[in-house]
Amino acid sequence: MNHPAPSEPESHVSPFAYGQWVVRHPWLVAGFVMLLAIAAITGVQFLQNNPDNRVFFGEDNPELLALEYLEDTYTKTDNIFVAVEPESGTVFTPRILQLMLDMTERAWQTPYSSRVDSITNFQHTRADGDDLLVTDLVQSEVELTDAYAAEINTVAMSKPFLVNRLVSSDATVTGLNVTLLKPEGNTDAVFEIVDATRAMVTDLESEYPDVNFYLTGGAIFDVAFAEIPANESARLVPIMFGLILLIVGVSLRTAWATICVLVLMGVSVGVAMGLTGWAGAVLNAGTTSAPVVIMTLSVAHCVHIIASMRQRLADGWQRHAAIVESLRVNMVPVFITSATTAIGFLTLNFSDSPPFQLLGNIVATGVMASFVLAVTLLPAILALVTIKPPKSTGWLTGFMDRLGGSVVRHSRVLFWLAGVVIIVLSAGMSRITLDDNFLHYFGDRFEVRQHTDFIEQRLTGMNMIEYSLPAGSEGGVSDPEYLANVEKFSNWLREQPKVTNVGAISQVMKDLNKSMHGDDEAYHRVPESRELAAQYLLMYEMSLPYGLDLNNTIDVSKSSSRVVTLLQEATSADLRDLNTRAEQWLRDNAPQMHTPGSGLSMIFAYISERNINSMLFGSLLALFVISLILIVALRSVRFGLVSLIPNLVPAFMALGIWGYLMGQVGLSVAVVVVITLGIVVDDTVHFLARYLRARRERGMSPEAAIKHTFRTVGVALWITSAALVAGFAVLYASGFKVNAEMGILSAVTIMLALVADFFFLPSVLLKVDKQAA
């Protein structure tokens, strides 16, 4: 057996049979581990992706259940929306109206389409003597002349349903909406729908080169949720590899060590994703950051083991003995950090958002796979390759020696200064508001965002709140009092900020009453009797063509109707505020019609708040379990509790900084505290483990133990923290807002954790350890 150099007394080195066995049988260990890894990695062939943006909501989410009930009562709101903008003039010209006629006809061929709405097929009612005529606003059999286009302009711009919904108030943009009935469980249907729509638009662009087309809608966002995050990961992973190569290579200054780190990173990701495939899990937009996170976290184990081995080599140890000793001193800390990190991510299962649950499970699997690889494959590879001892201690080691001495000398000042900084920065959390806009989940460099922004700014709002107003009895939607209340509620909604359009059955009934009285404007009001209103409604429904009935507005039994409110450039806070005030209006003015607001926008508006509430218990559980692990591992209740201070305050400070600089945070904030709690424990555990080993095995004083800890583990902590910060910071370059916010908040938290471990933890240890002594 190789013997240590005199600088590391033999009496302080206990036999480590496992490490000795690994270095004696490196080919056996490496071969067996790689066979298992390959078997796991083959599971990637079974990975599938779910493009449905509703995957962000749990099955028992009350807002989702309310939306599904509303859609079962009326029709689904899945859609494709195409906006049309002529480069000059208005849309009410013979050429553009012909375009809309052609596009409306083609849109009916969209797979799984159930309804198409445009200005051309808007059902226009008018009187012809005693008869009610219901026809398309633009009749294909009528010659499209300038005079006819002008007539259409006059009618369309007088219809509240159309203006700021299917035609802009300045008549320069118009739109077409395709309502979809996607088959349940068919994840390919949405791609078929979008491909068909894009093909239609491409054909129209060639026929009308002077017209601009813009695509948005639920199906477009579904595809974006599937395509963009995946493409972003494909772009970010190579960047992450490059950063790790740079940081580890420059810090460790050895090619073989860098290669070992990269191999462990790649295999860890492959095993995690492969096991996910074998488990039959379906990926989604929220899980695309998993590979980058796993790669980032797997670096720490490798760096600690390699750095410890190279320190022994520098002290004169032979290679195999250095590997064995590195495993001995790092096995427990590496396991603890792996377990605490995995626990942090596993508590994401308490999240109300399934993508975060799956993300937590995938990363936890990757972290534990990384631990197994770090204590099996890594030492086996190190035993097979030649890593020369460093020629010098290096500037980082020298810097850590000086830093340790300085921290000890100024520990009292650092304690109080750090306390003040922690309090001041953490106070910024009070400035944070939960607010986002799911339409802005994608950066403005993406086409879906650009098109959606154009439509919101020039045509109509894309956020929607829907109300299913009960009439109290079958056929009750024809009751004049009910219709009057619906009209009052609709008028109130139209007066609210950011509301662009409100659609309700009362508007239809007012138009019918006017038409049945010779288009006399004086009768543009709800009918005076229930019988008359029911008769008008029956006549109107019998005149409607296939696909344009009122099933999207009134239920089958005519006992309730849907009011649809569109909002322009509205945030989650705007939606929650309007819904709260709308529900209060109903309570005060029509309590028998009170109902909560619904719609996909409303679910997203409440998901951040629900996610934080659901994660509260998870956060407390993670804190409790991690505390127990640290107490047991460090064999000290006192030091276990002390370790919680530098583990908790970084997240509070990071959120405080965010509060001061940004103010608003969305879906990602609920998970940052939990996942960073598990991550930042890593540095604290390694620092405390080395400190306590110096105190217990070497009998050092607290001051000497602090200096020893900086010299022996400081470089590794710096390297791993730099890699972690770089890895999570890479996510900030993602165009997917959830990943970007999570990445930058995590990066700032980890950076602050390193500062806390270097400047605050030592001063706390000196106070606690001296008082205990």
Descriptive notes:
It is a single chain. The chain has 773 residues and is of the alpha+beta class. It is built from 25 helices and 13 strands. The strands form five sheets. It has a four-stranded antiparallel beta sheet with strand order 3-6-2-7, sandwiched between helices. A three-stranded antiparallel beta sheet has the order 10-12-11. Strands 1-8 form a two-stranded parallel ribbon. The longest helix has 36 residues. The protein is elongated.
Rg calc:
33 Å
Total E-strand runs? 13
Low-confidence segments: 1-15
| Arithmetic mean of pLDDT | 86
Summarize the main sheet.
4 strands, antiparallel
* Order of adjacent strands in the largest pleated sheet: 3-6-2-7
Shape: elongated
Instruction: Please count the helical segments.
Output: 25
Report, as a whole number of angstroms, the end-to-end distance: 39 Å
Query: Roughly what fraction of the amino acids lie in strands?
Result: 5-15%
SS class: alpha+beta
Helix % is 55-70%
Keywords:
alpha+beta; 4-stranded antiparallel beta sheet; 25 helices; disordered N terminus; 773 residues
SSE order and pairing:
Layout lengths: L16 H8 L1 H16 L6 E2 L12 H12 L5 E8 L7 H14 L5 E5 L5 E6 L2 E6 L9 H11 L17 E7 L8 H19 L3 E6 L1 H35 L2 H24 L3 E2 L6 H25 L4 H28 L7 H22 L1 H8 L9 H16 L1 H16 L6 E2 L12 H12 L4 E8 L9 H15 L4 E5 L1 H11 L14 H14 L16 E8 L4 H18 L10 H35 L2 H6 L1 H18 L2 E2 L3 H29 L4 H30 L5 H36 L1
Parallel strand pairs: 1-8, 9-13
Antiparallel strand pairs: 2-6, 2-7, 3-6, 4-5, 10-12, 11-12
Helix pairs in contact: 1-10, 1-12, 2-8, 2-12, 6-7, 7-8, 7-9, 7-24, 8-9, 8-11, 8-12, 9-10, 9-11, 9-24, 10-11, 10-20, 10-23, 13-24, 14-22, 14-25, 16-17, 19-20, 20-23, 22-23, 22-25, 23-24, 23-25, 24-25
